[in-house]
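#struct-queue
[09:14] JT: dropping the first one here, sequence first, then the structure tokens:
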Amino acid sequence: MKIAVAGGTGLTGRLVVEALRARGHAPVVLSRGQGVDLMTGSGLEAALAGAEAVVDVSNVTTMNKSVAVNFFETAGTHLVGAGEMAGVRHFVTLSIVGVDRVRNPYYAGKLRQEEIVRGGAVPWTILRATQFHDFAGQLLGGMPGPVAIVPKGRVQPVAVREVAEALADLAVQAPQGMAPELAGPREESLVDMARRLITAGGARRRPIVPVHLPGGMNSGGLLPTGPGPRGTVTFDEWLKEQDFSATRA
């Protein structure tokens, strides 16, 4: 089966492509390097010709609401429209658990992406997954100061490879609409994750300052609300697998 992967060169996308190939399918990467521009729609028609499904894991790194909304709205509109024209039978999109409960500029963009997928003519599946194991590192990496300010919220982190495997499975199944939420095997304190990451050498050593942030994160907004698939790789197991030599250097 020919399956297009938007964002197929990114962290999640590379693993989705790998998982699809392992299942005997023919993934096609939608990226600028392959002549496809999601923001203009250039190259999409040719790339989607003959594709039966699309997996959208495209992303933009920003905490600016207007940038996030513009990216996901523009890219999503082009993808869904091109998919309809190409006769794609299934559109699979990766989203985030709690995206509709936690106020966050980036999440506003993801919500707009979900709206576009749900409003399109192509049958769809949206998989909301919890934060990846590297979430604490992303927070710490964005703080250059002498201390790290970390939200007190709890998360249920999941391995990105397990998310990619789930997306690959969903792509070849019948459209489900909103799929059951995918989460990791156990709840974690984000503050504790940050401290353990620093101890393991995965981030610069400095004091952690826990803070209560408004917006729903502290009240469990990032945790799954119902039954669904659960990953098996814990945060501690993920830590042991990492090579932080470049970080320490």
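[09:21] JT: and here's the second one, same format:
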Amino acid sequence: MSREEQISRTFVELADTLVDDFDVIDFLQQLTVRCCEIFAVTDTAVVLAYPGPQLYSPAPCDPSPALSEVLEQAVRAGPARDAYHTATAVVPGHLATAPAAWRDFTAPARDAGYTYACAVPLRLRQDTLGSLLLLRTDDSPLPLDDLSVAQAFADAATIGLLHARTLKNAHTVNEQLHTALHSRILIEQAKGFLAARRHISLSAAFDTMRRHARHHHLLLTAVARGVVMTGGLPQPPSTARRPLGDTASE
């Protein structure tokens, strides 16, 4: 599949939110997956606000330990926080010359091997829901073409969130995004249970749950809840539900 086809497919996925079983956390996870596939980046994360200026990172759901530490600081300082507060793209360049105000973010990011970090806001006119953080380990900054498309993805994702059938106003959006935070905690617990039960890695456990959810048209959080409650993957309902996003891609 060409880059142009990948970009077109992603825009279609980001627009596909008008469904009764819209899953916010899987939607955001898919955004990070597509960014890593299409752009010259090492890792991508979504940072969201709930409530008001308080930030957290619900996606990716399965960050590495090093990335988890970086994201803990990214909500307090750095490009993701600045992009959210200014509603503009933040591209400072090499982390070795990052602003002093980013110190708490820059130190763990460089320790994790990242050399460049930038972010674009999740915005629609006066509404800014958060930002999209892009991290690189190469010796060059993110190409400007990638940054432009990343901003377009972030804009499309924001429009999708605000127009989803279950998100009827800004207050409801915040409630759904707050639910996404708790969903991530549930998914983290399920990953641990499934990994221990099957003697596999946490990453493999997450991939297994996500494939099961998409194959059987289940919410990712429902699969995670089933794993926590029963120790195994839940059985699909007898009546098939509409799939979320691109069921052919994991």
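[09:30] RK: nice, looked through the second one.
[09:31] RK: The chain is about 50% helix and 10% strand.
[09:31] JT: good to know. The first helix runs from residue 3 to 15.
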